[in-house]
## 1
Amino acid sequence: MEKYGTEFKLQVVNSFLEGEGGAKLLARRWNVPEEKIRTWVSRYRLHGIDGLRPKRSAYSSEFKLQVLSHQNRERLSSRRVAAIYDIRNPNQVVVWNEQVGFPRQCFEERHVTLVCRFQRVLVTWRGVVRPPHAQQDSAF
């Protein structure tokens, strides 16, 4: 069950965008956590009213790899890349990184074959990752 309705979120976002106060002041006025207001405003700016509506999605392996590739190519935070792709839980991007098994520092721009642990399929992707063991080997 959704705690805050779409119309309520829109009222709060409009208050913010119309300059009625910053996130901190509006959080007190509307009795909403400050971070929620910032999140709603960000989603609204990127995706309009759809960014405030409830969303339940299943993501394909290709989509997940696209998100991870974009995140690491552009050096984006999980929160920022989640906002760009309208992924409501930024921690989901962190989980995907862990599922693939490659920490952020292992990403580099080159063509490699990646064994995708999302659905145990072999996926060829441009600019995705270098396996951690290859990074360790180059240190010697």
## 2
Amino acid sequence: MVTSSTHNMRVGVEITRLSKKVLGSRDINKKNLATQMVDAMLAELKQKTSNNVSVADLARSIGVSVGAPYRHFDDRDELLDHVAAVGFDQLRARMTKHMSKEEPTSVQRIVEGGLGYIFFSVENKNLFHVMWDGSRRREPHFPSTGAGERAYATFIANLVVIMHATGHGEQDPMAFGSPLWTMVHGYASLLVANERMLDPSENALREQISVITHRYFNAR
């Protein structure tokens, strides 16, 4: 027979257990709020431009107060900079995946890396604009600068191997690589702006990037 006091004790224990669970989840949410905000913005950018997504909307979408994000970010620009940093890391991963299709010493490895850059940009147009937004406030401690440098460093590291293999090892890799990086970024920018400006098919882009890249190596 369950007495009233026993029942109340069990209820009290259950309430305590649930309270701890809820409070624990709040602690976890607080720790992960910055990541949740970045992930929420990335998800929104699949459908909308950043100008059409407010910090308040993101906060409500993950179930926190509209002021909670500002415990982690000074303002909207800092949030967007963290989003851009994720974008540059994803870009680096995409380029690396494409370059791995070719031998480390092959010029075609640079071509594939460029295609990875272009395809990522076209598939993530709104994120691309956030990554390269020159009007956003930048601070030394913001993460996008370092993430962008890591992406470029990955390109340069692969380029150095190819330069040595093709007789260009005495040249400055940064000076050698800059026109190639700029060319690929130009293709990406044009296709992001309007895919009808160029043939966006993989075969057409591979042929164009390949011809330009090989001619560049031969001319140097």
